[in-house]
């Protein structure tokens, strides 16, 4: 099976350990085990009491009952038996595509997005029709374009909240997308790993899993829950999809780690505390970023509505990779070239890291931009 090079991951693999200010990270500032316990109202002895008698076998193949119940509680209509765990959202997405996509299928994929949602179905022989969000329209999804692309499609792929733009679909758009999919009897693969990090209101927008019977919702402990080190994600789907996913999963996953399963369940059982911490970070940091953009004549952006990322448009006579490379070499600041998302003239920033790192990184970026002016 041939597949395109994964632009974002190649960039991150090359540079993220060689920078001083990582403004490319997309996870909310990671928690320690001690901080997780504090947010859960527990102490080290409580965790030790659960870990000490644990027999380190494979564990529950589909995820423990405790974990799947905690995941199901993040939705309005989902039951634990509609959940299966995977190695991160990246593993969950890959399993769904492997299970559902056949050569010659039509996939409508909203971009820019994580490259997986184009490259993987293409590698499986599908025709991927890309529906591009437009910066001039505030990264709004054109529903008419989606309807055109979805004609004859077996699956619609959408990320909400969006990475890299930070765009968020409102309830009317969610309903319209479900109607488009329903007309085609198509699946919706909804990558919802940033769900829970809205900038306004209660902070968690509806899931497609609660809106459309042929929805497949993907979630993760990495982004909104600050626990990327667990490498744990999940698929929420109807029984026929989970059955197909399970057949492929047997060849690549078997089970997630038992300690990962336990810590993920603990975090999700105290999701309100975890998300309150993380919303405070992303909302506070976005205010810092917004103020910085307003003061930088060479930078503009569409202010994100959710998630942890934004696309910054830069005014400089170079491609995005050259901009990022020169910034990294000069100031130690890591951003992601927009070219990795097939979108030039912009760079992606992750603004959910330690506030001190964000502030220092933006200051160094300003120094770099000032030299461009000189």
Poorly predicted residue ranges: none
Taking the alpha carbons of the first and last residues, their distance comes to 49 Å
Radius of gyration: 20 Å
| Major beta-sheet overview | 7 strands, mixed
Structural class: alpha/beta
Q: Counting H and I runs of at least 4 residues, what is the number of helices?
A: 13
Order of helices and strands: HEHHHEHEHEHEHEEEHHHEEHEEEH
Helix amount = 40-55%
> What would CATH call the architecture of the largest domain?
3-Layer(aba) Sandwich
Report the count of strand segments: 13
| Shape verdict | globular
The CATH class of the largest domain turns out to be Alpha Beta
- The CATH superfamily of the largest domain bears the name Type I PLP-dependent aspartate aminotransferase-like (Major domain)
Mean pLDDT: 97
CATH topology of the largest domain: Aspartate Aminotransferase, domain 2
Map the helices and strands.
Blueprint: H1 7-15, E1 21-22, H2 33-39, H3 44-51, H4 65-72, E2 83-86, H5 88-100, E3 106-111, H6 116-123, E4 127-132, H7 143-149, E5 155-159, H8 171-184, E6 187-191, E7 215-220, E8 233-236, H9 239-249, H10 258-269, H11 271-295, E9 299-301, E10 309-314, H12 320-331, E11 333-334, E12 336-337, E13 346-350, H13 355-373
């Amino acid at each position: 099976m041939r597949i395109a090079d994964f632009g974002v991951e190649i960039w991150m693999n090359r540079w993220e350990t060689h920078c001083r200010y990582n403004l490319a990270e997309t996870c909310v500032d990671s928690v320690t085990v001690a901080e997780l316990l504090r947010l859960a109202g527990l102490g080290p002895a409580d965790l030790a009491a659960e870990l000490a008698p644990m027999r380190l076998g494979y564990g529950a193949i589909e995820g423990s009952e405790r974990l799947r119940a905690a995941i199901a509680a993040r939705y309005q209509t989902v039951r634990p038996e509609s959940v299966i765990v995977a190695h991160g959202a990246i593993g969950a997405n890959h399993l769904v595509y492997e299970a559902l996509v056949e050569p010659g299928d039509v996939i409508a994929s909203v971009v820019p997005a994580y490259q997986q949602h184009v490259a993987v179905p293409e590698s499986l022989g599908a025709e991927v029709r890309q529906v591009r969000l437009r910066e001039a329209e505030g990264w709004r999804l054109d529903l008419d374009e989606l309807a055109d692309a979805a004609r004859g499609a077996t699956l619609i792929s959408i990320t909400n909240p969006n990475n890299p733009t930070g765009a968020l679909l409102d309830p009317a758009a969610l309903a319209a997308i479900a109607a488009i999919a329903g007309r085609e009897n198509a699946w919706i693969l909804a990558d919802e790993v940033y769900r829970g990090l809205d900038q306004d209101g209660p902070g968690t927008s509806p899931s497609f899993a609660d809106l459309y019977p042929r929805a497949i919702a993907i979630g993760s402990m990495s982004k909104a829950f600050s626990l990327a080190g667990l490498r744990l994600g999940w698929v929420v789907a109807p029984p026929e999809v989970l059955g197909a996913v399970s057949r492929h999963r047997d060849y690549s996953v078997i089970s997630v780690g038992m300690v990962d399963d336990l810590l993920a369940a603990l975090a999700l059982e105290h999701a309100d505390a975890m998300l309150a911490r993380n919303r405070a970070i992303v909302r506070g940091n976005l205010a810092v970023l917004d103020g910085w953009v307003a003061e930088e004549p060479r930078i503009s952006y569409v202010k994100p509505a959710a998630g942890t990322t934004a696309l910054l448009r830069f005014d400089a006579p170079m491609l995005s990779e050259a901009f990022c490379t020169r910034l990294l070499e000069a100031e130690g600041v890591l951003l992601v070239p927009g070219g990795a998302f097939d979108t030039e003239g912009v760079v992606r920033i992750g603004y959910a890291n330690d506030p001190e790192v964000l502030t220092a990184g933006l200051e160094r970026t300003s120094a770099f931009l000032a030299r461009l002016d000189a």
